[in-house]
Amino acid sequence: MQTATVGDVQKNFAEVLRKIKAGEEVIVTRRGVPVAKITALGAKQNIDWPDFYRESIELKGKPLSEVVTGNREERF
User: Fold this and answer.
1) How many distinct structural domains can be found in the chain?
2) Which of 16, 19, 34, 36 is most buried, judging by how many CB atoms fall within 10 Å of its CB?
3) pLDDT at 25
């Protein structure tokens, strides 16, 4: 874990980012007091999405669109 002052981070931000990307953590200090810790984001994980189509159930009866249009025709 590396320590850097606020001024160091402002002046050398690209270098600080390179170190963070390489896996280092940087503690940012102001007047010798730690105020922040900068770490790299975790690696993106592959999300195991469920197969909604395969898990769907087959509905029986009229499609909803037919029910709605039928009800509208009855009103007029």
Assistant:
1) 1
2) 16
3) 93
